[in-house]
Design a protein that fits this description.
342 residues; TIM Barrel; 2 domains; two-stranded antiparallel sheet; elongated
Amino acid sequence: MVPELCSSSQSPALGKTRGRAATINLPLVSKSSPMLKMLYDLCIPWSNDTQSLQRVLSFLSELNYSVVALDHSITGAIPSKIVSPIPSPLPFATPPNLKIVTRCTVSLSDPSHNHRLPSLAQAYDILAVRPTTEKAFLAACLTLTDASLISLDLTQRFSFHFRPKPLMTAVKRGVRIELCYSQALQGGSVDRRNVIMNVQSIVRATSGRGLVVSSEAKSVLGVRAPADVGNLLAVWGLSGERAVEAQTINPRAVVVNETIKRTGFRGVIDVVDGGRKAAESEKASKETANGQVNGKRKNEQAEEAVPAISKRKAKKLKMEALKASQEATSGSATPTKDSAAS
């Protein structure tokens, strides 16, 4: 039985056990927690119903979410001409404190049909794949390099198991595993059961590492506050610390890495000329106008160009010059034998 979501000041009831209501104390999120500082929801499906989409974005902004990704899903073959249906700017007003990025999710059944993924990645800010078969899932975890998110349809009952080795290989490669919770809130009992079973299997295989939690909400009814999401994930077996990382640190890493991929080239991100400081440039221009170099005039610089000698050597040279002058004077004053005989 799935518990109803409660506020951060209450504990959810897990049902009745022998006539008594069983409760569990879940980790609460304080207002000073980093969860409430930079929150990410990287999966909001794009819809032509702009009024409903605008309400979802406004509600996310009220819940202190900072970055939201509008998702466009592609099922089947990737078209040859790739055009993003998400306009820029959006045709409606958005909250000023909410950053909106674009995302594309590609359903992948055969990994050999992914030759257009690089061109698709250039049209969106984030690229995610949704594997539907075991072969596609292993390829997304082990070899696929264009996508940064593996988003699974958790309402499905997969024919394969989530093993730790491929999932942890994907996490070490920088790929994150996305968990969407709105299907467990609005879907039927079968969908809810499959979501809980798949989430618990993924959490067990990854030990809670490398996860990204998104809503995939098509209306405001599928969105929850970060404290409620943390409580829900705690019921499903994810620790409070990992739940905070799944809503803050891990999705931020996805956004930053995707930005670097699109702005960098062969390891070089960007080359920026910072220029010179205004005071230094003014001083250099004045010195040039006055005929100065490095704060000194040219004549002074020329004089200083003569190599200096030590005091000892200067004294020695002075003594030699004095001795030479004395010898010359004494030689001219002493009479010779010829002059004395005469």
